[in-house]
């Protein structure tokens, strides 16, 4: 699995902790910034770069960290093929994958401790789309992705 990873100034320290954690797990990480705590790259630029990688399937998933995780999610979700979710606990991470098939996780450096973030990331990585749901709901969730793809085509004009 390849993860595109990015942060702004407020998420830099948490991003670095996550990067080390992912590398120790043998996961390929593409660190798209920022590269040091003095960088002033705006959150929306980093979110765009990561979202483009994920949306174009150049990375299987992405993780973004800013102060709250919300700004990154807002920007990332403006890109086709991206389903970014702010998750502040493992339960939200699990549901963002099993229900919404999120492919970008956003976290808040102001809000989430490194220890909590590792648990959230591990839960998000191990959870598959529709996991844990009864067959009828699994089928509904799978079908919903087709409807969402149709909405994306209307919105973004892609085939």
Automatic annotation (TrEMBL):
Protein family per UniProt: Belongs to the LacAB/RpiB family.
UniProt-recorded name of the protein: Ribose 5-phosphate isomerase B
Coiled coil, from the record: none
PANTHER family given in the database record: DNA DAMAGE-REPAIR_TOLERATION PROTEIN DRT102, RIBOSE-5-PHOSPHATE ISOMERASE B
Pfam families attached to this UniProt entry: LacAB_rpiB
Organism placement in taxonomy: Bacteria, Bacillati, Cyanobacteriota, Cyanophyceae, Nostocales
Organism for this UniProt entry: Chlorogloeopsis fritschii PCC 6912
GO BP annotations, alphabetical order: carbohydrate metabolic process
GO molecular function annotation: intramolecular oxidoreductase activity, interconverting aldoses and ketoses
Gene3D superfamilies per UniProt: Sugar-phosphate isomerase, RpiB/LacA/LacB
């Amino acid at each position: 699995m390849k993860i595109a990873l990015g942060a702004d100034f407020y998420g830099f320290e948490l991003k670095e902790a996550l990067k080390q954690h992912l590398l120790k797990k043998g996961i390929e990480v593409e660190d798209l910034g920022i590269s040091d705590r003095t960088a002033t790259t705006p959150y929306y630029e980093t979110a765009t770069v990561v979202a483009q990688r994920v949306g174009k399937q150049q990375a299987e998933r992405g993780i973004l960290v800013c102060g709250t995780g919300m700004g990154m999610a807002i920007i990332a979700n403006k890109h086709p093929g991206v389903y970014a979710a702010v998750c502040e606990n493992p339960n939200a991470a699990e549901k963002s994958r099993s229900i919404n098939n999120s492919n970008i996780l956003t976290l808040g450096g102001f809000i989430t401790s490194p220890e909590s973030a590792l648990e959230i990331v591990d839960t998000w990585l191990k959870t598959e789309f529709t996991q844990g749901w009864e067959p009828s709901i699994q089928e509904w969730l799978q079908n919903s992705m087709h409807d969402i793809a149709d909405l994306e085509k209307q919105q973004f004009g892609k085939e």
